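Project outcomes to date are best conveyed with an example. Our students and postdoctoral researchers have been running inverse folding experiments weekly, and each run begins with a structure described purely in tokens. The record below, which covers 187 residues, was selected by the lab manager from last quarter's runs and is presented without edits.
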């Protein structure tokens, strides 16, 4: 991993732990990372997959999702969730979806028709929005890219919302072309 990417990754992990601790009203040092992967299991020895934390030896009362794009991080969380509540969040850059073949691999025929009906100047951001919605839904469902993304239509799907991103955060302008989405389902 390149030094800049490594630094961004580590900074996002620290920010995530601080975010979780703030929501729970306790010092970040009380939380111990415990990720969950459908293939590898869960616990403090897992460093990828769905983020989570241990608090005093048991699961922290928090459902969390995170995504990184263009040097920015999007966090979403529910504190004291009902059992079985699922959450997914995703942040995408339009530049990351602009390559030959993306639409055929990532979008349903209906989504491609929707995209084709737009003015050319709006397609890149809309493509990123659709991809963010798919990623958020797949994270929430816990299946990731085990599901063929071109089989999942996200134009109209209950429990899925676009995130209205601010123009700036912490005194810095967000780059143009970012799209975010959150998916939430209760048991």
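After processing, the design step wrote out the following sequence:
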């Amino acid at each position: 991993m390149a030094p800049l990417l490594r630094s961004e990754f580590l900074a996002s992990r620290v920010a995530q732990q601080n975010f979780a601790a703030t929501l729970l009203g306790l010092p970040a040092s009380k939380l111990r990372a415990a990720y969950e992967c459908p293939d590898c299991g869960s616990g403090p020895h897992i460093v990828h997959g769905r983020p989570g934390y241990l608090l005093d030896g048991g699961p922290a009362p928090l459902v969390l999702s995170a995504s990184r794009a263009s040097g920015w991080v999007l966090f979403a969380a529910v504190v004291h969730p009902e059992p079985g509540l699922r959450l997914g969040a995703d942040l995408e850059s339009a530049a990351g979806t602009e390559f030959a073949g993306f639409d055929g691999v990532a979008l349903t025929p209906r989504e491609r028709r929707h995209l084709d009906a737009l003015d050319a100047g709006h397609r890149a951001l809309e493509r990123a929005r659709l991809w963010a919605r798919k990623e958020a839904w797949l994270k929430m469902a816990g299946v990731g890219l085990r599901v063929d993304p071109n089989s999942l239509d996200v134009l109209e799907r209950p429990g899925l919302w676009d995130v209205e991103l601010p123009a700036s955060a912490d005194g810095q302008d967000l780059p143009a072309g970012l799209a975010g989405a959150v998916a939430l389902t209760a048991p």
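Residues 85-187 form a domain with the Ribosomal Protein L22; Chain A fold (CATH 3.90.470.20). The first helix runs from residue 3 to 24. The training component of this project remains on track.
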